């Protein structure tokens, strides 16, 4: 007898009870007790963490050394508690990528691979119990209305997984759309499915909005969900205007289900399953790098794990009343901070991706899509998609001008700007509208 649906309903109900918490102090006490209990279990089961935390009491878990993706992959065999070897897991994940069959497991564990936005691909392990807990939680956070209602979901991602397949039930129709397939195949399938919920990376939602405006896509989803990429303000505007719906967000990565939008459209961190420490990069603006401790995942423990993302916290209270931290926006990756030569000395100046995005968007209403790639501190490539019939040379002149003004405001030399047509197509690689292609050291100097 398959008891998975019952367990998912139970996890959904538990997630709903946790989401009903309204007192921040109570939430933090609740988190603390679960984290301490969790790290005690992890210490016993993971030789990597046992050695890393030697001499530090579980109650002082904030003193544990941080780890990152490189450390997690380097010590994968000793870090996971299921006895899975990295080579074995990677072979299975790569086979799934080649065959597009993502159902095989190792010892009852789902194996997945991240898309490698940061330049190195990561593996993730999820046990059956964790998969059911994830399913119940994501259904509670994402579905509009009750689980008892009928929902028809179209879900776009680079790779399917048993994790996502768990969502299917008698009341929830769930169709996976492979981002590697041609757009016209997607349009035909969507017209046949007529989903009530459309969930996809923003770059794909933009393409689908274009197909809808062209009269080729004939669907009326009641709920839009953006995931896997940073939701750019320009993309948000076009998608919401086209479908007549507010976009909700899911903040999910290899390291866990980190956040989701509430009914008011505010992105909240899922602090009932993860604890987020904030390493402020710009305290005045509330921009921080998250350090994640997941106190639910055990097969592949995530404890004081530094992400490469930049988040900006919301300074005003969300009307929903949730004590979970509200996020104004996901800025992008810390790897994509622009590093430019200073005009006042020999050092360098940094620019947040959000500043670059907003400057380009404000340059001209003729810009329909863009990518800004900093190849070196003095060389920038700007890909622009210009509205049909617009003057490309004038739009490029305006874009160059606003970027020069932005650099001037922060006393940075303006890089040499080269223009190219916008060519990005959603697929195996995530869209990064603002990207830096060279490494820097801790002093933010190019290396």
Automatic annotation (TrEMBL):
It comes from Saccharibacillus endophyticus. Gene3D superfamilies: N-terminal domain of ligase-like. It comes from the Bacteria. This is Adenylate cyclase.
């Amino acid at each position: 007898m398959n008891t998975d649906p019952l367990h998912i309903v139970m996890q959904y109900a538990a997630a709903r009870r946790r989401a009903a918490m309204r007192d921040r102090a109570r939430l933090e006490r609740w988190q603390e007790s679960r984290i301490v209990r969790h790290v005690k279990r992890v210490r016993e089961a993971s030789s990597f963490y046992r050695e890393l935390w030697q001499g530090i009491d579980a109650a002082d878990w904030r003193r544990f050394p941080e780890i990152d993706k490189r450390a997690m992959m380097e010590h994968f065999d000793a870090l996971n508690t299921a006895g899975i070897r990295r080579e074995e897991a990677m072979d299975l994940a790569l086979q799934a990528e080649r065959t597009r069959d993502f159902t095989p497991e190792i010892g009852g564990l789902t194996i997945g691979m991240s898309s490698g936005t940061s330049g190195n691909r990561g593996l993730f392990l999820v046990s059956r119990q964790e998969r059911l807990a994830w399913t119940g939680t994501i259904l509670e956070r994402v579905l509009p209305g009750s689980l008892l209602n009928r929902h028809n979901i179209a879900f776009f991602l680079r790779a399917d997984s048993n994790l996502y397949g768990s969502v299917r039930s008698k009341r929830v129709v769930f169709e996976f759309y492979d981002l590697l397939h041609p757009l016209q195949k997607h349009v035909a399938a969507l017209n046949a499915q007529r989903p009530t919920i459309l969930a996809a990376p923003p770059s794909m939602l933009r393409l689908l909005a274009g197909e809808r405006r062209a009269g080729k896509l004939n669907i009326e989803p009641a709920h839009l969900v953006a995931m896997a990429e940073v939701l750019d303000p320009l993309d948000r505007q076009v998608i919401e205007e086209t479908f007549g719906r507010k976009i909700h967000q899911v903040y999910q990565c290899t390291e866990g289900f980190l956040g989701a939008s509430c009914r008011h459209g505010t992105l909240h961190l899922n602090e009932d399953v993860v604890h987020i420490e904030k390493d402020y990069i710009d305290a005045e603006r509330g921009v921080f790098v998250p350090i994640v401790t997941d106190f639910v995942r055990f097969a592949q423990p995530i404890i004081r794990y530094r992400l490469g993302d930049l988040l900006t916290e919301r300074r005003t209270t969300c009307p929903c009343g949730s004590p979970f931290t509200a996020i104004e926006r996901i800025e992008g990756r810390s790897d994509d901070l622009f590093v430019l030569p200073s005009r006042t000395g020999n050092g360098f100046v940094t620019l947040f991706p959000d500043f670059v995005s907003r400057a380009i968007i404000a340059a001209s209403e003729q810009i329909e899509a863009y990518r800004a790639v900093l190849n070196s501190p003095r060389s920038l490539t700007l890909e622009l998609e210009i509205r049909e019939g617009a003057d490309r040379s004038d739009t490029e002149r305006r874009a160059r001008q606003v970027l020069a003004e932005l650099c001037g405001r922060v006393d940075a030399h303006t890089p040499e700007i080269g223009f190219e047509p916008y060519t990005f197509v959603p697929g195996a690689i995530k869209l990064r509208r603002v990207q830096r292609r060279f490494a820097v050291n801790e002093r933010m100097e190019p290396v």
